[in-house]
């Protein structure tokens, strides 16, 4: 609860239009949070906000656009009284063999997965620090390991991991920093892969994905529900049958 006003806590979720972000919004709203849903696809987040009802607002924002994030933060301050939780979830996984043909994908992944999370955090930091907050960074198993064809995606997630550990030390004890590192989760993530042979191969694995986004959302909600003196800083979780 936001102590001063005795109001439910406020969670800002980037990439709330699908997958893990949408599931996290549903889970936190069910736990009594007010939620700000950020994404580029306005129709999707408006539909989700309408589904959730009271205490949910949709804000169109591209995490590569700092001005849009600043405007979003202003709306969260004005309409919800400020953010207690920021979930840096927006991401893209544009896998493929390393080549110049993929160079636009590399820039996009770095700008969304790494710089987008950094920018959203610096924009919302004052709100998180006001009264104590939580920062949840959605990394990946790819933030702990790397394999052929995922080099730049892994680089963005390794970057998120290193940055998170530094922030954890800077922000303690008032802002708890948590890394969530999932393996394969059944979402639309692979559908955006531009290298066609890689997309088809990766999609086959996702077609039989056993872990659902709701299960990751449940872990995030559990982490946030721990008493303030306990910080869960890192959770690595895979489908039980995933090797790497
Ligand atoms: N699914 C997995 O197997 C898996 C495993 C490990 C980690 N992850 C991580 O989990 C996070 C969520 O992915 P997901 O699996 O739920 O995939 P998803 O369903 O494709 O969701 C990705 C979300 O990111 C948003 N997004 C993409 N580019 C954006 C931008 N420039 N600005 C704002 N939002 C943007 C998308 O919204 P709009 O397109 O509407 O903007 C969408 O809501 C990512 O960080 C991903 O790396 C996923």
From TrEMBL:
Q: Which domain of life is it from?
A: Bacteria
One of its Pfam families is: adh_short
Q: Under the GO molecular function aspect, what terms does this record hold?
A: oxidoreductase activity, acting on the CH-OH group of donors, NAD or NADP as acceptor
Q: Which UniProt keywords apply?
A: Oxidoreductase
The membrane-spanning stretches of this chain are none
SMART domains for the chain: PKS_KR
What InterPro entries does the annotation carry?
KR_dom (IPR057326), NAD(P)-bd_dom_sf (IPR036291), Sc_DH/Rdtase_CS (IPR020904), SDR_fam (IPR002347)
Q: Where does the record place the Ketoreductase domain?
A: 9-188
Q: Does the keyword Oxidoreductase apply?
A: yes
What protein family does this chain belong to? Belongs to the short-chain dehydrogenases/reductases (SDR) family.
Q: What is this protein called?
A: Putative oxidoreductase
Q: Which organism is it from?
A: Rhodococcus wratislaviensis NBRC 100605
Query: What are the top taxonomic ranks of the organism?
Result: Bacteria, Bacillati, Actinomycetota, Actinomycetes, Mycobacteriales
């Amino acid at each position: 609860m936001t102590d001063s006003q005795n109001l439910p806590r406020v969670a800002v979720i980037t990439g709330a239009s699908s997958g893990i972000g949408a599931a996290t919004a549903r889970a936190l709203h069910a736990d009594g949070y007010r939620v700000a849903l950020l994404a580029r696809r306005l129709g999707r987040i408006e539909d989700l906000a309408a589904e959730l009802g009271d205490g949910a607002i949709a804000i169109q924002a591209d995490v590569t656009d700092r001005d849009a994030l600043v405007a979003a933060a202003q709306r969260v301050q004005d309409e919800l009284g400020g953010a207690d939780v920021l979930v840096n979830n927006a991401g893209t996984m544009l896998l493929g063999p390393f080549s110049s043909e993929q160079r636009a994908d590399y820039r996009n992944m770095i700008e969304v997965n790494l710089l987008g999370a950094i920018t959203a955090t610096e924009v919302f930091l004052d709100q998180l620090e006001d009264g104590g907050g939580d920062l949840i960074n959605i990394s990946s198993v790819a933030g702990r390991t790397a394999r052929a064809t995922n080099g730049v995606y892994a680089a963005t997630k390794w970057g998120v991991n290193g940055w998170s550990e530094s922030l954890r030390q800077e922000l303690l004890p008032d802002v708890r920093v948590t890394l969530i590192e999932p393996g394969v989760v059944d979402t639309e993530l692979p559908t955006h892969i531009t290298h066609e042979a890689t997309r088809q191969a990766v999609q086959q694995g996702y077609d039989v994905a056993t872990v659902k986004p709701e299960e990751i959302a449940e872990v995030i909600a559990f982490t946030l529900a721990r008493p303030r003196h306990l910080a869960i800083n890192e959770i690595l979780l895979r489908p039980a049958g995933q090797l790497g």
